[in-house]
Amino acid sequence: MVQRFDVGARLSEMAVHNGVCYLAGQVATTGGDMREQTRSVLAQIDALLVRAGTDKSKILMCQIFVVDLAEFPALNEVWEAWVAPGNAPPRATVRAELAKPEWKVEMVVTAAL
Fold first, then answer.
1. Partner residues linked to 111 by β-bridges
2. Cα separation, 83 vs 99, whole angstroms
3. How far is CA 83 from the centre of its chain?
4. What is the Cα–Cα distance from 106 to 42, expressed in whole angstroms?
5. How far is CA 10 from CA 6, 7, 54, in A?
6. Is 3-112 CATH 3.30.1330.40?
7. Which string of DSSP letters, residue by residue, matches 43-111?
8. Strand pairing of 26-27 and 59-66?
9. What is the mean pLDDT of the chain?
10. Is 111 within 8 Å of 18 (Cβ atoms)?
């Protein structure tokens, strides 16, 4: 059975199937610089994972999309303070044009339950 969360016309924020949790791309709900937006995205990831019954220590993979690679160090600073010690997941970061010009970062996470 597939369990979907926050289902809309276009997408669900999260789906859980067969012991795996799949999050939609998470973007900042606040404005601000890369650090602030990264904190916002990570807080959303934490909240979704809790709803699914898991946490950041069980992230299997994270894909990160950034508009400006010059801001990569600021993103990493916040990420490294957030990531579960000893549980840094595989990760990919790419430069991308995001759907809204105010967004600086988007993250897609897959986690085990």
1. 21, 59
2. 26
3. 12
4. 10
5. 11, 8, 25
6. yes
7. HHHHHHHHHHT--GGGEEEEEEEES-GGGHHHHHHHHHHHSPTT-PPPEEEEE---SSTT--EEEEEEE
8. unpaired
9. 97
10. no
Question: Torsions phi, psi of 106, nearest 5?
Answer: -140, 140
Q: Quick one: tokens of 61?
A: 């993979």
Each residue's pLDDT tens digit, 3-38: 999 999 999 999 999 999 999 999 999 899 999 999
User: Whole-model pTM?
Assistant: 0.96
Long-range contacts: 73-77, Cβ < 8 Å, 24+?
74/33, 74/34, 74/35, 74/38, 75/34, 75/35, 75/38, 75/105, 77/35
What is the distance between the alpha carbons of residues 16 and 30, in angstroms, rounded to a whole number?
Answer: 27
**DSSP annotation of 24:** P
